[in-house]
Structure formats: C-alpha cells, structure tokens
Amino acid sequence: MTLSTATTSAPAPAPAIPRGSRGRRVKALLAGGLVLGVGAAMTLAAWNDSEFATGTFTTGAFDMVGSTDGTTFSDHATLGTAATLPFTVYTAGMTPGDVSAAPFAVRLTAPSTAPASVTISAPAGANTGALSNFTYTVLDTGTTATCTAATTGTALIPAATALGTVPGSTTFTLPIGTGGAAGTATHLCFKVTANAVMTQSASATATWQFLATSQ
Q: Which of 82, 91, 109, 130 has minimal Cβ neighbours within 10 Å of its Cβ?
C-alpha cells in the first residue's frame, strides 16, 4: 500500500497596493470622517425661544360695622358685644300703647370690596323675659338717622310683630364705598309698642342679629 503525504499551501499574499493608491484611500476615509463629523454637529445645534406668563392674585376685604348714633361706627361681632340700642326711656315704665324707639345704622368699611346682603334674625336663646307684652317694627329710613315714635320709612319687619321673633327672610343691601371711603350707611328705626293687655312690672330683653353676606 502506497502512502501519500498531503501538503497545505500557504495563502497567497495580498496584492500590494501601490503607494499612491493607499494615500488616496486614506485621504478619502479622512474626508468621509470629516463630513460625518460636520453632519453630527449640525444636528445637535437648534434654535431656542421661550415664553413666560405670571399672575398675582389678592383677596378682597369685607367688614360691616354698626352705630347707635349714626356717626360713630364700630364692630359688634358677637352676642356678648351687642350694641345697646338707646330706646326712649320711660322712668315709670311703659304703659299700654306706649311706643319706645331707637336708631341703629350699619355700613361696610372702607376696605370692603363687595356689596352685602344683610339678613336680620333673632338669635336663639337671646330673647328673654315678658316678650308677650310687646310688639315691634323695624323701618329702613335710608340716610335719615332720626328715629322717634313718629318716624316713617320702609318696613323691614312689619308692625305688630311679636317681640323676640323675626318673620320670614328679612334682608336689605349695603353698597361698597368709592374713592377709599366707607359705604353709605343704612339707617334703621326700631319701634317697640306695649300691648293693650300686659303684665305689670315685667321686663323683656330682645336681641337682633345682622348677618352680612358678600354679593
């Protein structure tokens, strides 16, 4: 048997690149690299522009004050600080048919920025004594501060209303002031009448609440 030996031939050497051609290829690659670099830089550059907006908001003010003389106004914001109405004094006590009157005025303070709707009510538990001996009415006298038994005006609470009660929804409006001034006051006249039939030597205490709500 004849044995043969296999031989492995070496790979043929790569053809030599002429010196001039190699230089041109290198230059071509470099040129391509420069083009890619310039293109990347152009895509990263961008135009920028911004807009900003802001707003400032301030809350308004709202406050109502009262006066028993139509001139000096102050706060009477709680039941404990209620203003004492200057009713006509009867030194011997009221007799049937007597009418006792007292003024009261309310207005909005200068900083107030909204008009008000004012509701009159009778606070629970604040009306005591012989209330059944009396009836009353409350008149809106506009800008007139005078309040006597003979005073007339628009009835906010009708005549012959039982003392210590307020019928229905009794409301009126208050305007705001202008030019930094307080609002125009609304003057009220309270008139209490002694009933024809009444208990002698008996007293009663009535309290009214004025609740202002901004419109």
A: 91
The 10s digit of each residue's pLDDT in 45-55 is 679 999 999 99
pLDDT in tens, 166-182: 998 899 999 999 999 99
> Three-class SS string for 158-194?
EEEEECCCCCCCEEEEECCCCCCCCCCCEEEEEEEEE
pTM: 0.76
Query: What is the token pair recorded at 37?
Result: 């670099």
The neighbour count for residue 90, using CB atoms within 10 Å, is: 11
Rg of the Cα atoms in the chain: 47
| Alpha-carbon dihedral sign for residues 210, 189, 167, 184 | negative
Q: Could you tell me whether strands 116-121 and 186-194 are parallel, antiparallel, or unpaired per DSSP bridges?
A: unpaired
Find residue 137's DSSP bridge partners: 191
- Provide the number of structural domains found in the chain: 1
Tokens of 44: 């990263």
Instruction: Give Cα separations from 31 to 21, 28, 40, 45, 65 (angstroms).
Output: 15, 5, 15, 22, 88
192, HSE (Cβ side, Cα atoms, 13 Å): 25
Q: Residue 134 belongs to a domain with what CATH number?
A: 2.60.40
Task: Flag whether 185 is in a domain.
Answer: yes
**Domain span holding position 164:** 64-214
Residue ranges in 48-120 assigned as alpha helix (H): none
Going by the DSSP 8-state scheme, the letter that residue 132 receives in this structure is G
